[in-house]
Amino acid sequence: MKVRNRLCMVWPVMFIGARLPAQPPPSFEVATVKAAARNPGAILASTDPAMVRYPSITLKNLVAIAYGFSSRLVVGPAWIDRENYDVAAKLPPSTPQDRIPLMLQTLLAERFNLALHREAKEQTVYFLVPAKSGSKLKQSQPPAAQETQEARRDGAPLQMRSGLIMGRGVPISVLASSLGEFVGYEVIDRTQLSATFDFDLKWTPENGGADAELFAALEDQLGLRLTAGRAPVETLVIDRAGRMPQSN
Predict the structure, then answer these.
(1) 127 with 218, same domain?
(2) Burial 6-18 (b: 16+ CB within 10 A, else e)
(3) What is the pTM of this model?
(4) Which of 14, 34, 133, 212 is the most buried (most CB within 10 A)?
(5) What is the total count of domains within the chain?
(6) How distant, in Å, are the alpha carbons of 26, 138, 198 from that of 143?
(7) Is there a single domain that holds both residue 126 and residue 216?
């Protein structure tokens, strides 16, 4: 009887102490990463739903995509913005799109021996605020109520190119982030506008950069303005990365 009591006491301890095997990090079925000979171009994903392709992309942009950061906020050695790579990877069947960044993180760790950390630093920023005359943004309507689907071509809710930011059904934080790509600094939303909006912001760029035209167009067309200031901004700091990717 004493033996039975002892076994009954030991068994729960053994059961509680048991550990499930660690799950492997999400990864592609197969991937090729090699140095690219040509100059960097547009960052394009493959139209093949079973593949992810990034032709002639910098490591800086790969890290930005993998971790959901603007490339402006990725800090590391100068070569990460100069060296270009061709990336082609096959997805496991039925992989959801939101899992691809995690797979890219695994790939970067394996092929570039990447190590990084997050760090908040106070930087010069722009705050996006309503103009004195008030916001002119048009709140989005359900798709069935839209008079035209012209601006939804290619199914893209946001389109950007020199002299144009066009959004359909996007939150104001997305507009703020988009503006940051043109003004060269992080843009922080302080409009206190919580809806989603449709907008077409157009301006005439000067020398391909941000200028007074953008600031004037923002206030005239959307009733918003940018004010300079300083605020803590989270950055990704690369601690270690190999310049040549390891063999495929």
Answers:
(1) yes
(2) eeeeeeeeeeeee
(3) 0.69
(4) 34
(5) 2
(6) 35, 14, 11
(7) yes
Residue 2 lies in a domain: no
Tokens of 79: 């070569």
Which residue is listed with tokens 């946001």?
A: 158
Q: What is the dihedral of CA 168, 173, 178, 184, to 10 degrees?
A: 170
Residue 228 lies in a domain: yes
Domain that holds residue 132: 122-141+156-234
**Is residue 169 in a domain?**
yes
Are 54 and 107 contained in the same domain? yes
User: Does one domain contain both 199 and 128?
Assistant: yes
Could you tell me if residue 22 is inside a domain? no
Enumerate the β-bridge partners of residue 216.
none
Strands 74-75 and 224-240, bridge-based pairing: parallel
